[in-house]
Design brief:
Blueprint (H helix, E strand, L loop, with lengths): L1 E10 L2 E11 L4 E5 L6 H8 L7 E6 L2 E2 L5 H6 L2 E4 L11 H8 L6 H14 L1 H5 L10 H13 L5 E5 L7 H16 L3 E5 L3 H7 L2 E6 L2 E6 L1 H5 L2 H7 L6
Parallel strand pairs: 3-8, 3-9, 6-7, 7-8
Antiparallel strand pairs: 1-2, 1-4, 4-5, 9-10
Helix pairs in contact: 3-6
């Protein structure tokens, strides 16, 4: 579905991504782990058109999307749930969700997706009239995910969805990620909680200083000694 080949991105002469290649198969959950500053968020921002690539290819269903406009990429079926949630604080929950569907014209399907989002997140339905800025961190994360779903994406990219959330809320968010995936949405996940991310991932990549250094099934990487020591907090015996 999504194939990235030899992607290079630079910021003012500093190489942020150095020849990154990865694949996100249709219907799968793919996770990308790595230390802060490894280039994970840069990759998502480049895919979504927020950052311009220096060279390489980003292919979605046989169509090259590298350096296309953000609206065009969104229209192709890619949605980003950004780090830090980035909800519109002065708008209500329902208005935030409506913004997620701003490129769509299919009013009946939009109504269906409102109902689906409110089924996934009953708390949002209870607070549909409430200003987003007054929600808790967990509720704002739910809203950010719901807003992305309102674009009816083929692929949903999530940047650190558990950041700053209580463990119980983190578990709820990951349960929802599984449910969204079962409903047919492909997931590309960046997550600081490597244990949770690898546990739900069909496929996983490790990014270090802008380059892919490991790749394999999520469960397999959980047993990799290098990954255990660097990202799972487990020392080698």
């Amino acid at each position: 579905m999504l194939r990235i080949t030899d992607l290079h991105v630079s910021y003012g002469g500093i190489k942020a991504l150095r020849g990154v290649s990865l694949e996100v198969p249709e219907g799968k959950i793919v996770t990308l782990i790595g230390a802060n500053g490894a280039g994970k968020s840069t990759l998502l921002r480049t895919i979504s058109g927020l950052v311009k690539a220096e060279s390489g290819s980003i292919d979605l269903d046989g169509s090259e999307i590298i350096n296309r406009s953000i609206a065009s990429i969104c229209d192709k079926g890619i949605a980003l749930v950004p780090e830090g949630r980035r909800v519109f604080a002065n708008l209500t929950v329902e208005e935030n969700l409506r913004i997620g569907a701003y490129l769509r014209k299919d009013k009946e399907k939009i109504r269906e997706d409102y109902a689906w989002v409110y089924t996934l997140f009953p708390r949002l339905k209870e607070r549909s009239w409430q200003l987003a800025g007054t929600l808790s961190g967990g509720e704002q994360q739910m809203l950010a995910v719901g807003r992305a779903l309102m674009s009816r994406p083929k692929i949903m990219m999530m940047d650190e969805p558990s950041l700053g959330l209580a463990p119980l809320i983190v578990q709820q968010i990951f349960d929802i990620i599984r449910e969204i995936n079962k409903a047919g949405v492909t997931i590309l996940l960046i997550e600081q909680n490597a244990n949770m991310a690898l546990n739900i991932a069909d496929d996983a990549y490790v990014l270090e200083t802008g380059a892919i250094v490991l790749h394999g099934p999520g469960k397999e990487l959980m047993e990799n000694e290098q990954v255990k020591e660097a990202y799972l907090g487990k020392k080698r015996g």
